[in-house]
């Protein structure tokens, strides 16, 4: 079974046998078709799959698996999932192929059965939910045009916006101002704004996201308001999904993943747990403890009807690895 977790910032590929033994695992750059285009996505996938096949002692020129389970960032709409499935299926890696959004892999990685809600906040933010009867609920997750708020890039942009307004007098005083100035190594943010305007400086908002959390942790009210807004958004995503599937009063797992949520020493996770308990008292909030590619592999093993011990064997192989969102 060939498992692919294709994220915005990284891609992980694993070859796993039906008993859950990991035959090969490789990682590479992000391959979201929304960011790099479908041809480049397929090129990255193909390179990593070839490396995995060689590592497993297989010939990359032949079908290397019975089933491919590809769970990808950028597969946000049914048409995108179908287009990607057709494209990947055409590469001839396996007899059957399933393509889904990468948040489904997160949900399976964090549960024993793929039932519940998963919210991911890394480069972007997304949420999916699966009910015990198979019904699903999901959001388009296309950014601001689909109502999204959050993600590392968004939060980093907020850090710069708030710092600039603090400097020019339109905003409240905040420790984000000296922190962002220090980040860029300038005397004023007006210099940064001008250099960004003339394309003399490349703006990487993701680099400012951890900085905002650091300033918030030190007690800055302005930065803390952004963290609170993120907590509110995560709770909204989870609670709306639970409500739409009539699970608000049921014991259900809510799985959190992605670097923005898991890299804050529990600041966001603990607040989400407290607030969600007020609307879904039986829900259990948990942070995924294995990389999402494990979820993709588990969904593939589910499709193949793997024996009961396969899941434990697979999870054990990854248990010492740091989760990647």
Automatic annotation (TrEMBL):
The UniProt record lists the keyword Cell membrane: no
Cited Pfam families: BcrAD_BadFG
Domain (ATPase BadF/BadG/BcrA/BcrD type): residue spans on this chain: 4-300
Transferase keyword on record: yes
Coiled coil: none
InterPro entries assigned: ATPase_BadF, ATPase_NBD, Euk-type_GlcNAc_Kinase
TM spans (from-to): none
Source taxon at top rank: Bacteria
Keywords: Kinase, Transferase
Record SUPFAM superfamilies: Actin-like ATPase domain
Gene Ontology MF terms: kinase activity
Name this polypeptide is given: N-acetylglucosamine kinase-like BadF-type ATPase
Annotated organism of origin: Saccharothrix variisporea
Highest classification ranks of the organism: Bacteria, Bacillati, Actinomycetota, Actinomycetes, Pseudonocardiales
């Amino acid at each position: 079974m060939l498992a692919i977790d294709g994220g915005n910032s990284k891609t992980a590929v694993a070859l796993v046998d039906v008993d859950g033994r990991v035959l090969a695992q490789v990682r590479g750059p992000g391959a979201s078709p929304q960011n790099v285009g479908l041809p480049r996505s397929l090129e990255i996938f193909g390179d990593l799959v070839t490396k995995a096949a060689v590592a497993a002692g297989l010939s990359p020129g032949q079908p290397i698996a019975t089933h491919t389970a590809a769970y990808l960032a950028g597969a946000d709409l049914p048409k995108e999932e179908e287009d990607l499935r057709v494209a990947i299926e055409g590469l001839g890696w396996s007899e059957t192929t399933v393509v889904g959004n990468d948040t489904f892999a997160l949900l399976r990685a964090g549960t024993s059965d793929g039932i519940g809600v998963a919210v991911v906040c890394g480069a972007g933010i997304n949420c999916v939910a699966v009910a015990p009867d198979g019904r699903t609920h999901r959001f388009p997750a296309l950014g601001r045009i689909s109502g999204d708020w959050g993600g590392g890039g968004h939060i980093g942009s907020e850090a710069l916006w708030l710092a600039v307004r603090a400097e020019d007098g339109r905003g409240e005083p905040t420790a984000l101002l000296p922190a962002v100035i220090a980040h860029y190594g300038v005397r004023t943010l007006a210099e940064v704004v001008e250099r960004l305007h003339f394309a003399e400086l490349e703006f990487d908002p993701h680099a400012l996201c951890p900085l905002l959390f650091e300033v918030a942790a030190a007690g800055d009210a302005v930065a803390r308001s952004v963290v609170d807004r993120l907590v509110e958004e995560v709770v909204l995503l989870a609670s709306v999904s639970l409500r739409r599937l009539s699970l608000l009063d049921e014991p259900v797992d809510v799985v959190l993943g992605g670097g923005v949520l898991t890299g804050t020493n529990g600041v966001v996770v603990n607040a989400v747990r407290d607030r969600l308990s007020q609307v879904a008292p039986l829900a259990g909030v948990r942070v995924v403890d294995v990389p999402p590619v494990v979820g993709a592999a588990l969904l593939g093993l589910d499709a193949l009807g793997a024996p009961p011990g396969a899941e434990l064997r697979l999870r054990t192989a990854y248990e010492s690895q740091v989760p990647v969102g």
